[in-house]
Each structure stands twice: as C-alpha cells, then as structure tokens.
C-alpha cells in the first residue's frame, strides 16, 4: 500500500457550544488540514494519486469552509464545529469523491494551530 499526504488550509470563524471557556465566544483560526489516502495501485508513471489531483479534490471540500462562520453550515448545525467534527466532515466528503477509485482516505487531521490538532480515521 502507498500512503499519499497533502495539506491545505482555510480561515474560518466558530464558537463552541457546550464549552466552558473562552472558545464559547466567537473567534477564528487559520485551520490547517492534512489529508492522507491509502492507494493499492500505481499508474504507468508509478504514481498512486497525483498530488495535484488530491490537492484539487481537497480544495473543493475545504473551499466550502473557507471564510465562513462554521456554526451556520449544515454539517455542523446540529453538532459543533470542533476540529474533530471538521476532520470527520472532510474525511467523509473525500471518501465520496474517491468512490470507485483505488485510493481511499486513511486519515484527516485538522490543526487549529501548530500546537493542537484532531485526527479522524475509520477502524476496520
Ligand atoms: N479537542 C478539542 N479541543 C478544543 C477544540 C477542538 O476543536 N477540539 N477547540 C478549542 C477552541 O476552538 C480554541 O479556539 C482552541 O483552543 P486552544 O488550542 O486552547 O487555543 P489557544 O490559542 O488559546 O491555545 P494556547 O496554547 O493556550 O495559546 C478548544 N479545545
Ligand atoms: Zn476555536
């Protein structure tokens, strides 16, 4: 198997519901997203999935979050826009985008800063 990893970023505002602390208040982050996919085949150029393609698929998903107030967006309306839930959302959207391909997402990490990240992955 091959694991291919790219990063992207977006800026967004959120507030955490049911959180006892300052993060309950409206604030923003420059989120960093790290996406990894597992691929079991190489093409004739010995590439599992082109970094360009993975970046582009990820960008399509992440651009829907960029410069938005995350609490208002459908995927987080009934939950909370934590790094955990953002990572899960990106993972699930990427899984749909890679349907019928020889690659599938293995993990998605969302960093709120260089000091803190949450990672989502599925166990078999
Ligand atoms: N597991 C999680 N914990 C926290 C999340 C989260 O999404 N998942 N989010 C927050 C807040 O969004 C908060 O803005 C970030 O918290 P923190 O990293 O503590 O932010 P600081 O910039 O204040 O960090 P310092 O290292 O203290 O400067 C909270 N927790
Ligand atoms: Zn925050």
Automatic annotation (TrEMBL):
Binding sites annotated in the UniProt record for Zn(2+): 14, 27, 29
Pathway annotation: Purine metabolism; 7-cyano-7-deazaguanine biosynthesis
Cofactor (UniProt): Zn(2+)
UniProt KW Glycosyltransferase keyword: no
Gene3D superfamilies: 6-pyruvoyl tetrahydropterin synthase/QueD
Keywords: Lyase, Metal-binding, Queuosine biosynthesis, Zinc
UniProt remark on cofactor binding: Binds 1 zinc ion per subunit.
Record family assignment: Belongs to the PTPS family. QueD subfamily.
Name of the protein this chain belongs to: 6-carboxy-5,6,7,8-tetrahydropterin synthase
């Amino acid at each position: 198997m091959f694991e291919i990893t790219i990063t992207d970023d977006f800026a967004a505002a959120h507030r955490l519901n049911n959180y006892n602390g300052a993060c309950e208040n409206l604030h923003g982050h420059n989120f960093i997203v790290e996406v990894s996919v597992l691929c079991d085949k190489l093409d004739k150029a010995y590439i599992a999935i082109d970094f360009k393609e993975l970046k582009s698929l990820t960008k399509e998903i992440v651009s829907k979050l960029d410069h938005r107030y995350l609490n208002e967006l459908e995927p987080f309306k009934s939950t909370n826009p934590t790094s955990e839930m953002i990572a899960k959302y990106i993972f699930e959207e990427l899984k749909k985008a890679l349907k019928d391909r020889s690659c599938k997402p293995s993990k998605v990490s969302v960093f709120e800063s260089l000091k803190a990240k949450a990672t989502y992955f599925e166990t078999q």
